[in-house]
Specification:
The chain has nine helices and 17 strands. With 335 residues, it is an alpha+beta fold. It is elongated. The N and C termini lie far apart (56 Å).
């Protein structure tokens, strides 16, 4: 946070601590009144601060005395939830999570009513009995449309699987959207069972599990591809990443790390791959927080803000594909 903004916060804290005072003289009476925040608004602030404190990856290192005082000062005099929104946004800025966001109830409704932005996947057979997969991306709310996106990708992979000797999984432009939808879509290529997870605060670890037709986090289904028959898999996979590989692509790439016959190619990723969660407040507003550090099945974590590095670094995306083809050609299944 810029120094000027931090000083402004401190000024609010000082103002909140001065309280009210009454001074009487023979000449005049000066009265300074401190506005009271309603119990209703105060409880709403408690709700928001508790969510931040108990879930954010930044919570253990945050200055909670500063955050609490600054938020209460900003919300001074608030009577209803809407009058605390700026204070909650201030608290999120002080928390230090650059990806944290506060979404008002009206914004939530607008988002839910907006059709998803879908970039269709590309699944095609290429020379040498290789298959090429560009995952596409699903930008929208978790919904039946997300499962339909996953089903489309997974069914194309499943249909092509018997006819190919290896896979090129291109995550080079998997930039935005729901990682759950992409994970469920590529689930036929991913090992069954626990393939990693997300490390949170207080030693919390939410396992990422793949059953072939569903993806689960901490035992809860977060994506489904609706396959009735999942291919056996086991064929080599070349994973491509690059500077445009954003959070969903990074999370998928990490899930494949440690799988047999998988190698990655390309350039370092964008470095934003934290797991995020949205927490609903009592009035329908939402607080989004970074809550989990992606961790592969070998226990290696990649902290948000740091890129994923491929096994083999190349100069351009085209070079990445060429290197992937060369590696796959050496595999016994492709000879």
């Amino acid at each position: 946070m810029p120094t000027t903004a931090r000083l402004a916060v401190l000024a609010l804290v000082v103002a909140a601590c001065t309280g009210s005072s009454t001074t009487t003289t023979t000449e005049a009476v000066e009265v300074t009144t401190t506005l009271r925040t309603s119990t209703f608004a105060d409880e709403y602030l408690d709700e928001a601060l508790t969510i931040m404190r108990e879930n954010s990856l930044w919570s253990p290192v945050a200055d909670w005395d500063e955050i609490e005082e600054a938020v209460r000062a900003e919300a001074e005099g608030a009577l209803v939830e809407e009058e605390t929104y700026l204070a909650i946004e201030l608290g999120l800025r002080l928390l230090g999570d650059e990806r944290a966001a506060f979404v008002t109830p009206s914004e939530v409704l607008t988002f839910e009513a907006t059709p998803p932005d879908i970039e269709d996947p590309v699944v095609e057979r290429r020379e040498g009995n290789l298959a090429y997969v560009a995952t596409g991306q699903f930008i929208g709310d978790l919904s039946p449309e997300a499962d339909a996106f996953s089903a489309d990708l997974a069914s194309q992979i499943s249909n092509l699987e018997p006819d190919v000797c290896g896979w090129i999984l291109d995550l080079g432009v998997t930039r935005f959207g729901l990682p759950e939808a992409v994970l469920a879509g590529v689930a036929p290529l991913l090992d069954r069972g626990v393939v990693g997870g997300f490390a949170g605060i207080e030693d919390r670890f939410d396992e990422l599990e793949n059953t072939g037709d569903t993806v689960l986090i901490a035992g809860e289904i977060v994506g489904s591809n609706q396959l009735t028959q999942v291919p056996d898999g086991g064929k080599p996979i070349a994973v491509i990443i690059g500077s445009l590989t954003g959070p969903p692509g990074e999370i998928v790439a990490i899930a494949f790390r440690g799988q047999d016959d998988v190698q990655s190619f390309g350039q370092p990723s964008a470095g934003f791959g934290l797991w995020g969660e949205a927490f609903e407040l009592s009035d329908g507003a939402v607080i989004a927080l970074g809550t989990g550090v992606p961790t592969d099945r070998l226990g290696n974590s990649t902290q948000g803000g740091f890129p994923i590095f491929p096994d083999t670094q190349t100069t351009t995306p085209a070079d990445s594909v060429d290197a992937a083809v060369e590696w796959l050609a050496t595999h016994p299944s492709c000879q």
